[in-house]
Design a protein that fits this description.
Layout lengths: L7 H20 L22 E4 L8 E6 L12 E6 L6 H14 L2 H4 L1 E6 L4 H6 L34 H12 L10 E7 L1 H12 L8 E6 L37 H9 L2 E7 L13 H4 L5 H15 L5 E6 L6 H5 L2 H7 L8
Parallel strand pairs: 3-4, 3-5, 5-6, 6-7, 7-8
Antiparallel strand pairs: 1-2, 2-4
Length: 349
């Protein structure tokens, strides 16, 4: 029977399902030594229609976003920006919808909130949608701050831009006082793979002028430890290699001494699902990951406690979301998330 697709999106979805195995085998990437294997991920169903170019100081290339306002025209009334990061499926449109729901549930505070959802594409996405070379694309390494597979930087000695360069670029656009004169706070929110990205970016991000930046990190699989202590003593020679520690980091990462100082000043909330206790499935089960704990809940609690004990992150806090497991909407639409994203009586925190 002949299939007829009247809607381009349905055609794209069909092609994604049919071509996903071949594309992910061809472009899925290979895990580094001692790290968890990469799990196949199908091409995305939607790509953000707004395309932002990186500032040339951060490298070459462009990235898609879903956004509630034009990042260049801005908003005269927005007081907060909610930058929500998708998970490993790169379904930024779904996370953008969650971000809008978070803002809507916040009432008056949400009305003064800009929602931005950047999208990190992989090579399979670029191949399926026949994207031009100007689009940044990664292997799964976008979750770890790795340089993109392309495009190359105009300066031949520089690697392609990192996924952290993209986040820096979003912060810079939101920090433009002419476009956003009333903006008082930028909060990054992520779950799962997006939490993995933010759990590392919150440690190593490059400070820049603008409103204070906060982080709400939900159910990350593992964390970047800026110290060598680990809660579970195991014989793992690679326990401190990036993405678990600061040994052999990607080119974005700066001086370790400066990192510790900047990290200590950051406002970070870990959201931990009380039922996120599985130690199977897509959870990283490498030896280095197991030095952090057995499951996501334990790893989050351990990280918070280790950072507190070491005095490395005095502003880091954690909140346990009851009766919730590894569920994006259950976590991000919770009362606990709302309190962290919109702190009562402290809008400029």
């Amino acid at each position: 029977m002949k299939r007829v697709f009247k809607h381009p999106r349905r055609l794209r979805l069909f092609l994604a399902l049919v071509l996903a195995p071949a594309l992910t085998n061809a472009f899925g990437g290979v895990a580094g030594a001692g790290q968890a294997p990469s799990h196949p991920s199908p091409p995305v169903a939607d790509i953000g229609s707004t395309i932002e170019a990186l500032d040339s100081s951060r490298g070459a290339g462009a990235y898609p976003v879903f956004t509630s306002v034009d990042l260049h025209t801005g908003s005269a009334t927005a007081r907060q920006a909610l930058v929500i990061i998708h998970g490993r499926l790169r379904n930024a449109s779904d996370y953008y919808a969650t971000g809008l729901a978070i803002a809507d549930a916040a009432g008056q505070a949400g009305e003064a909130t800009v929602v931005v959802a950047p999208q990190f594409l992989i090579q399979a996405d670029a191949t399926l949608y026949q994207l031009s070379d100007r689009y940044l694309r990664w292997s799964r390494g976008w979750e770890e701050g790795a340089p993109a597979l392309g495009p190359a930087s105009p300066q031949s000695n520089n690697p392609p831009a990192s996924s952290y360069d993209v986040l820096d670029d979003v912060v810079a656009k939101l920090s433009n006082a002419q476009a956003f004169p009333a903006l008082k706070r930028i909060v990054f929110v992520g779950h799962g793979g997006g939490a993995q990205l933010l759990a590392r970016y919150a440690v190593v991000m490059h400070p820049q002028p603008g409103p204070p930046v906060s982080f709400v990190i939900a159910n990350a699989g593992t964390y970047l430890y800026p110290i060598t202590a680990r809660p579970v003593p195991l014989d793992c020679p690679d326990f401190n290699l990036w993405k678990y520690g600061l040994d052999q980091p990607p080119p974005y990462v700066g001086d370790p001494g400066t990192i510790l100082k900047d990290f200590a000043a950051r406002d970070i909330t870990l959201l931990l699902g009380a039922n996120d206790r599985k130690a199977t499935g897509i959870l990283d089960q490498s030896c280095a990951a197991q030095t952090q704990g057995r499951n996501r809940l334990q790893r989050g609690l351990n990280f918070a406690q280790e950072m507190t004990a070491a005095g490395a992150a005095p502003h880091l806090r954690y909140l346990v979301v009851p009766d919730t497991g590894h569920n994006e909407k259950g976590m991000l639409l919770s009362r606990e998330a709302a309190g962290a994203i919109f702190p009562v009586g402290n809008a400029e925190r």
